[in-house]
Amino acid sequence: MEHFANNPPGGKKEQLALTSCNLFDSSADRVTVHFINRDGERLTATAKEGESLLEVVFNQNLGIDGFGACEGTLACSTCHLIFEEDVFQKLDAITDEELDMLDLAYGLTDTSRLGCQVCVKKAMDGLTVQVPMEVADMRRELEVGKQSK
Ligand code: FES
C-alpha cells in the first residue's frame, strides 16, 4: 500500500495518518460497531473509544474492498460511510478539508462522512454504518487525469 502521509496528492496539508482521534486504551471503553458492506453483509467490530472508523476497519481486518486507500490522509474518499440520521447529527463538526474530499465521493448522501475523520465514542455503541456501493479513490482519478493530458 502506498503512503502519502508526508506528501499527499492534491496539495492537502500534511496530516498524520490514522491518528486523528484521541485513543483511550481501556477495555471498559469497548463499542460495538456494525458495517453493512457493499454486498449487504453485516460486519461487526468491537472498537475502542477514540479510534477512527478507519482504524476499526484496519485493526480488525474487516475486508471492505478498497477502504481507506490513503490511510487517513484525506486524499482518497474511499473511507466514505453513510450514517443513520440520528447518529449523524451527533457527530463532531466536519472540517473544510473533509468536506472538500467528501464532495468527490460517489453516492454522496445527506448523512455521509469520511470514516477516517469520525472518532468512535461510547454513545455510538450499536452503531450501524453503510458502506456505499461505489467507491472513488481520488488519487487514482488524479493520476488518470494526468495521463490523459
Ligand atoms: S482514508 Fe482516504 S480520505 Fe479517509
From TrEMBL:
Q: Which InterPro entries match?
A: 2Fe-2S_ferredoxin-like_sf, 2Fe-2S_ferredoxin-type, Adrenodoxin-like, Adrenodoxin_Fe-S_BS, Beta-grasp_dom_sf
SUPFAM superfamilies in the record? 2Fe-2S ferredoxin-like
Localisation per UniProt entry: Mitochondrion matrix
GO CC aspect terms: mitochondrial matrix
Keywords, in A-Z order = 2Fe-2S, Electron transport, Iron, Iron-sulfur, Metal-binding, Mitochondrion, Transport
- An individual GO BP term: P450-containing electron transport chain
What Gene Ontology terms describe what this protein does at the molecular function level?
Answer: 2 iron, 2 sulfur cluster binding; electron transfer activity; metal ion binding
Q: Where do the 2Fe-2S ferredoxin-type domain residues begin and end?
A: 31-135
Q: Which Pfam families match?
A: Fer2
Cofactor(s) the protein requires to work:
[2Fe-2S] cluster
Q: Which PANTHER family match?
A: 2FE-2S FERREDOXIN-TYPE DOMAIN-CONTAINING PROTEIN, FERREDOXIN/ADRENODOXIN
Q: Which family does it belong to?
A: Belongs to the adrenodoxin/putidaredoxin family.
Q: What is this protein called?
A: 2Fe-2S ferredoxin-type domain-containing protein
